[in-house]
Amino acid sequence: ASPADSWAALALTGHVPLGAFARVCIVLTAFGWILSMPLSIQIPLLLLPNGRLLSRRWRVTLWIVSAGFGIGLLGFSTVPGPIDGAPPERHLVNPLGIRALGPVPKTLAICGAGLLLVGMVLGAAA
Question: What's the pLDDT score for residue 83?
Answer without folding.
Answer: 72
